[in-house]
Design a protein that fits this description.
This protein is an all-alpha fold. It has one domain. The protein has four helices and no strands. The chain is elongated. It starts with a helix and ends with a helix. The mean pLDDT is 91.
Amino acid sequence: MTLDDIERESREIKLDGGPYQMKHYRENMREVNEKYKIQSLLANELSDHPKADAIWEFAWEEGHSYGLHEVNQWVGKLAELIR
């Protein structure tokens, strides 16, 4: 599965309302975000880096409000800094 596929999947998850739907929405988004994290770190050759989780957390905080693509851009920028 590519990063683009995972981004598309995240856009397809809809919130219809109600407490059950909110829980279901959050679970689905958590799964999609975890898949995206794995693929983003792999694509940027950071999956085995000892600070991969810290890099992801920083990238997430800086970019997630603009979408998963922006998070990946941050991961890429940080990958360049540590090489």
